[in-house]
Amino acid sequence: MERTERTERGERQRVAVAGASGLIGGALTRSLTADGHLVVRLVRREPRGADEVRWDPEAGRVDAAGLEGCTAVVNLAGAGVGDRRWTPAYKERLRAGRVEGTRALAEAVAALDTPPRVFVNGSAMGYYGPTGDRAVDESAPAGTGFLPELCVAWEGAAAPAARAGIRTVFVRTGLVVARDGGAWARLFPLFKAGLGGRLGDGRQYWSYIALHDEVAAIRHLLDRADLSGPFNLTAPEPLTNREITAAMGRVLRRPTLCAVPAPVLRAVLGEMSGDVLGSQRVVPKRLLESGFVFAFPGIEDALRAAL
Questions:
Q1: Distance between CA 297 and CA 307 in Å, rounded?
Q2: Sign of the CA dihedral running 218, 151, 206, 186
Q3: Which of 159, 242, 286, 306 sits 20 to 30 Å CA-CA off 257?
Q4: Does the model's pTM come out above 0.85?
Q5: Does residue 4 carry a pLDDT above 50?
Q6: Torsion angle of the four alpha carbons 110, 112, 113, 117, in this order, in degrees rounded to the nearest 10
Q7: Nearest to 208 by CA among 121, 114, 306, 122
Q8: Measured in whole angstroms, how far is the alpha carbon of residue 143 from the centre of its chain?
Q9: Predicted confidence band at 6 (pLDDT cuts at 50, 70, 90)?
């Protein structure tokens, strides 16, 4: 199978995407397809066409033959961290989908006769754990706790691809500002109804990124053959929850008086409340150094883009 062919836009790439039905994966798939690239989706059911490949991430199985000819593989699969309370069973589901799925995919591409040029693996700013007011870039060590440990194992599972000489990139994504998924899919309706407000004392930093910039950054990392390793996908200047709450009020022209006390969040969310109340001031040093330009660096621009 030929790896590429020429189009009016230049090289037409064949890109495999795991997690193509998710918020980021879906947006990335639409962006690639719009530019004439062929996207191969990894699916858990029986494939319905040549553009689908069967896999079972929790069981660590993937139909490697379907990945032949791909120039790039992007792994964004995994159950949503904030979708449910962190019970022991759900923690295991989060771990299995990310770690076992990544390992199976990395081993599959490493064994191909003609492996892809690049393997982009999802990760999260949760890698660093709570950082308080301290700004951290990609040189900072991993934190402690469930999320940092999950991110370390998630990234480590991609080792077979790196050992095979495939350029391997980790995207440590922040809070994605989008209307139809992620944290803001829950925040927008509340704020539109006039029920929005700060969470806890509001002094915790939230490192966010517009969905448009998230996709553009992943494509930037796909195209740049000189880039590998971890990249923080967050806007250049993180803001506190209090500042973001105020921006939401200005953009939506609604009051923001309904603060949620920290004890209530802990009672409702359990262990996951630490992720909401914890402060993560994460900056995209390596992404900026690589020449990437954000289209929506400010929170109000990101909010308006989402709406």
A1: 16
A2: positive
A3: 306
A4: yes
A5: no
A6: -60
A7: 306
A8: 18
A9: very low
Considering only CA atoms, which of 205, 213, 239, 107 is closest in space to residue 162? 107
The tokens of 174 are what?
């922040």
Ordered structural domains, the chain, with CATH: 5-176+208-234+282-294 (3.40.50.720)
Among residues 150, 146, 144, the alpha carbon closest in space to that of 172 is found at: 150
Sign, CA dihedral 211-279-276-255, equals negative
- In degrees rounded to 5, what are phi and psi of residue 72? -150, 150
- φ/ψ of 30, rounded to 5, equals -65, -40
Average pLDDT over residues 104-131: 96
Using CA atoms of 147, 152, 158, 160 in order, give the dihedral in degrees to the nearest 10. -150
Query: Which of 61, 168, 68, 70 is closest to 112 using CA atoms?
Result: 68
pLDDT tens-digit series, residues 219-272: 999 999 999 999 999 999 999 999 999 999 999 999 998 887 667 555 555 555
Residue 271, token pair as written in the block? 């262990």
| Residues 6+ positions from 271 with CB-CB distance below 8 Å | 85, 86, 146
Residues 262-301: tens digit of each pLDDT = 675 555 555 555 556 689 999 999 999 999 999 999 999 9
As a whole number of Å, the end-to-end CA separation of the chain is 42
Burial-class residue 214 by CB neighbours within 10 Å (0-12, 13-18, 19+): buried
Residue appearing with tokens 């994605």: 176
Q: Nearest Cα to 99, choosing from 123, 120, 119?
A: 123
Contact 143, 188 (CB under 8 A): no
Which 8-state DSSP code applies to residue 98? I
Cα separation, 272 vs 266, in Å, equals 8
pLDDT digits (tens, 9 = 90+) for 44-59: 999 998 899 999 988 8
